[in-house]
Automatic annotation (TrEMBL):
Keyword Nucleotide-binding attached: yes
Residues of the full protein shown: 1 to 460 of 600
Record bears the keyword Glycoprotein: no
Domain of life the protein comes from: Archaea
Swiss-Prot/TrEMBL keywords: GTP-binding, Initiation factor, Nucleotide-binding, Protein biosynthesis
Binding site for GTP: 22-29, 84-88, 138-141
Annotated ranges, domain Tr-type G: 13-228
GO cellular component: cytoplasm
The protein, known as: Probable translation initiation factor IF-2
Function: Function in general translation initiation by promoting the binding of the formylmethionine-tRNA to ribosomes. Seems to function along with eIF-2.
UniProt source species: Halorussus gelatinilyticus
Taxonomic lineage from the root: Archaea, Methanobacteriati, Methanobacteriota, Stenosarchaea group, Halobacteria
Family: Belongs to the TRAFAC class translation factor GTPase superfamily. Classic translation factor GTPase family. IF-2 subfamily.
GO molecular function (one): GTPase activity
C-alpha cells in the first residue's frame, strides 16, 4: 500500500453483506443452514469466523466449496457475510445510511410453488432499495425426474445441461424465469448471468441435498466482485458505523446490542452514539463480544472479549445505558470526531425513518424502527391516522395514551411483533382500550378495519 493510500486511514475492501428473502416455507432457513453446513465441512474446524447475528464465509472457504467454479486469485473481496435472520421483515428493517444494510440478496423460490405473495413483496422491496439479487430456485430434489448430480456443480458439463433440458425441472425453472420477466427483469439461467441490473441469475438449488450451493456461492461472489467492489471500499481503520440487529439482556453484561458493523472499526472503551427511543444515547463500550467457537464452550461463558473488531462483522456490544436503544437504529463510533456532529448524524438518520403522527389516531408499537415505518406506510395507505408510533413492548403508559383518544375507534393499540408487559394487559382490561397483536402487517390492519366496521354497525 502506498503512502497516499494510508494518508487518511487504511483503505481496504470489506465483506459484502448478504440477506435471504422469499415466501414462507420456500426454504430460506434451510438454505442458510445448508450454506453454513457445507462450508463448515469444507472449511474444517475454525475456518468460519463466529459472528453475532451473521455468518462469515471467507473467500478460501467459498472457493473450496465452489471447487473448480472459482479461482480465488480472481477475487479480492474477503468473502461473504450472511445475515442469519432470513425474511424481508429483517431486510427492510436493517438499514445503513439510508440504504439497505444488505449489499446483495438471495431470493428463494420453491420451484414447485413459483412466485407467491411474499416473493412479489420481496421483489418490490429489492427494486425499491435497488439491491442486486440472485434467485435460488429451491427444492429441485422434489421435482419428478430429478437426477441428483452430487459429483459436480450443476453447470459443469454440457451433457449435464442438455440432460436436464428435457426434464420437468427445466420447465419449472423457465416458469420462474417467466415470472421474473413479468416483474420487468430479463432473467436467464445462471451460467449466462451478464448484468444483475437487468439480467437476474437463476440458480437451481436444493437446500436438502446441497446441490447447487457451490453454484450459488459462485454467482454471489462473482456479482459482488464484478459490480460491488467499489461499494466495498472502506477506510478499514476509521471510526465504525453499524446497525443494531437486536437489543438483548445478557447475563453478566446487562443490556447489550447485537450489531452488524459495516464500516470502520470499533474498540473497547470507545465512545459510541446509538439511536435511542427519545434521543441518541452516548455511552462508552464496556466490551466487544464474539461467540466462542463451539469447541471451546465448556462453561456458561458463551462469549469471548475482543479489543477491536473491523467491518464487516456481527458483534455484541456491552455498554451502560442501552435500555432505550432501538433495534434497527444506527451505531456510530465517535473517536476523533466532534461528538455533537456524530449525534447530529445519528439524529438525521433516525429522522429519515421517523413516522408522521396526527392529533388523533391509534397507537402503534413495533419491534424495530424499520417495521414501524413499514406499518406507518401501510396505515397511511389504509387512511388510518396514527397518534403515536414507537419501538418497544406495549407498556401501561401506552394504554393510558390510547385511552385519551376522543373516538372509540382510536382507543386502540396495534402491536407488531412485540410483547405485552404484564401491567399493560391488566390496564387494557380495566380501560376500554382495544389491543391488536400480529406479526403480519396486513393482518393487523385487516383486523383493525373489521373492528371499526363492527363499531360503526353497532352505532347505527
Ligand atoms: P422458510 O420458511 O423459507 O425459512 O422455509 P424453511 O427453510 O423452514 O423450509 C420449509 C420446509 O421446506 C421445511 O420442512 C424444509 O425442510 C423444507 N425444505 C426446504 N428446502 C428444501 C429442499 O431443497 N428440498 C426439500 N425436499 N425440502 C426443503
Amino acid at each position: 500500500m502506498s503512502d497516499t493510500d494510508t494518508r487518511d486511514g487504511e483503505h481496504g475492501l470489506r465483506t459484502p453483506i448478504v440477506a435471504v428473502l422469499g415466501h414462507v416455507d420456500h426454504g430460506k432457513t434451510s438454505l442458510l443452514d445448508k450454506i453454513r453446513g457445507s462450508t463448515v465441512i469444507e472449511g474444517e474446524a475454525g475456518a468460519i469466523t463466529q459472528h453475532i447475528g451473521a455468518t462469515a464465509i471467507p473467500l478460501d472457504v467459498v472457493s473450496k466449496v465452489a471447487g473448480s467454479l472459482i479461482d480465488p486469485s480472481d477475487f479480492d473481496l474477503p468473502g461473504l457475510l450472511f445475515i442469519d435472520t432470513p425474511g424481508h421483515h429483517s431486510f427492510t428493517t436493517l438499514r445503513s445510511r439510508g440504504g439497505a444494510l444488505a449489499d446483495i440478496a438471495i431470493l428463494v423460490v420453491d420451484v414447485n410453488d413459483g412466485f407467491q405473495p411474499q416473493t412479489l413483496e420481496a421483489i418490490n422491496i429489492l427494486k425499491q432499495s435497488q439491491t442486486p439479487f440472485v434467485v435460488a430456485a429451491n427444492k429441485i430434489d422434489t421435482v419428478p425426474g430429478w437426477k441428483p448430480n452430487e459429483d459436480a456443480p450443476i453447470q459443469q458439463t454440457k451433457e449435464a445441461q442438455s440432460d436436464r433440458a428435457s426434464s420437468m425441472l427445466d420447465e419449472k425453472l423457465y416458469e420462474v424465469i417467466g415470472e421474473l420477466s413479468d416483474e420487468g427483469f430479463t432473467a436467464d439461467m445462471y451460467w449466462r448471468v451478464q448484468d444483475f441490473r437487468g439480467n437476474i441469475g437463476v440458480v437451481p438449488v436444493s437446500a436438502e441435498t446441497g446441490e447447487g450451493i457451490p453454484d450459488l456461492l459462485t454467482v454471489l461472489m462473482g456479482l459482488a466482485q464484478r459490480y460491488m467492489k467499489e461499494d466495498m471500499a472502506i477506510d478499514v481503520t476509521g471510526p465504525g458505523a453499524g446497525t443494531v440487529l437486536e437489543v438483548k439482556e445478557e447475563k453478566g453484561f446487562g443490556t447489550t446490542l447485537d450489531v452488524v458493523l459495516y464500516d470502520g472499526t470499533i474498540r473497547e472503551d470507545e465512545t459510541i452514539v446509538v439511536g435511542g427511543m427519545d434521543d441518541p444515547i452516548v455511552t462508552d463500550v464496556r466490551a466487544i463480544l464474539k461467540p466462542r467457537p463451539l469447541a471451546e464452550i465448556r462453561t456458561e461463558d458463551r462469549f469471548e472479549k475482543v479489543e477491536e473488531i473491523a467491518a464487516a462483522s456481527g458483534v455484541k456490544i456491552a455498554a451502560p445505558e442501552l435500555d432505550r436503544a432501538m433495534a434497527g437504529a444506527p451505531v456510530r463510533v465517535v473517536r476523533d470526531r466532534d461528538i455533537e456532529e456524530v449525534i447530529a448524524e445519528v439524529r438525521a438518520e433516525l429522522s429519515e425513518i421517523e413516522v408522521e403522527t396526527q392529533e388523533q389516531g391509534v397507537v402503534v408499537k413495533a419491534d424495530t424502527l424499520g417495521s414501524l415505518e413499514a406499518i406507518a406506510n401501510a396505515m397511511d395507505e389504509a387512511e388510518i391516522p396514527v397518534m403515536r408510533a414507537e419501538v418497544g413492548d406495549v407498556a401501561p403508559r401506552d394504554i393510558s395514551v390510547a385511552s385519551t383518544a376522543n373516538e372509540d375507534k382510536h382507543k386502540t393499540i396495534l402491536a407488531f411483533n412485540v410483547d405485552l408487559l404484564a401491567d399493560a394487559e391488566q390496564r387494557a382490561e380495566e380501560s376500554d382500550v382495544k389491543l391488536f397483536e400480529s406479526g403480519v402487517i396486513y393482518r393487523l390492519i385487516e383486523e383493525y378495519e373489521e373492528y371499526v366496521e363492527e363499531l360503526e354497525r353497532a352505532q347505527q
